[in-house]
Amino acid sequence: MDEKFDIGARLNAMRVAAGLSQRQLAERAGVPHAQISNVETNKVSPSVSTLRKILNGLGVGMGDFFEPERSPPKGPFFSAHELVDLTSKVATSPIAGGDGKLIFRQIGDARAHNLQILHEIYGPHADTGETRLQHASSEGGYVVEGELEVTVGDDVRVLKAGEAYLFDSRVPHRFRNLSDRQTIVISACSPPYL
User: Fold this and answer.
1) Start and end of every HTH cro/C1-type domain (predicted)?
2) What CATH number has the domain spanning 7-66?
3) Residue 170: is it exposed, middle or buried by C-beta count within 10 angstroms (0-12/13-18/19+)?
4) What would the CATH number be for the domain defined by 80-190?
5) Domain segments of the chain: what residues?
6) pLDDT < 70 regions, the chain
7) Which residue in 109, 115, 102, 121 sits closest to 82, CA to CA?
8) How far apart are CA 90 and CA 50, in angstroms?
């Protein structure tokens, strides 16, 4: 995936293959009809949470959307280049000059083990989006480097290196790097949701 991934073209192809109109997909995903059109024509770059909502309307996970031909290595050991890059080409809107990039790299085949382990890198001012994430899983993570603001329901806390989180993912949540430095997190989720 050296060249820029065309989110709009990929979404359009998957929607057409599913036999859905833009309006039907918007209804299934619970997003405005215009949002589907704007993403497909690359007029907007969706946040991770918005793209996840749209893909849920198609019944497709993020991993399958970005790397449909991938075949995760079996393990039990994995070198750095064997991690599955799920979202390195997705960027949220830059805030205060930050690059807003999120990189999620998965260890092995999450579905085969019913456990998703991610190496997450949040660029300066990266944000999973104003639309909070919500899915039927449990997830936890450990901040290895930097600081990460974690919002779970009404609880908000900025976690520093060495601190961690664990919660029911059905509670709406959001992750943000408010700093000018990158943040690195190791997280786990069961069952997998990306």
Assistant:
1) 11-65
2) 1.10.260.40
3) exposed
4) 2.60.120.10
5) 7-66, 80-190
6) 1-4, 67-72, 87-100
7) 109
8) 11
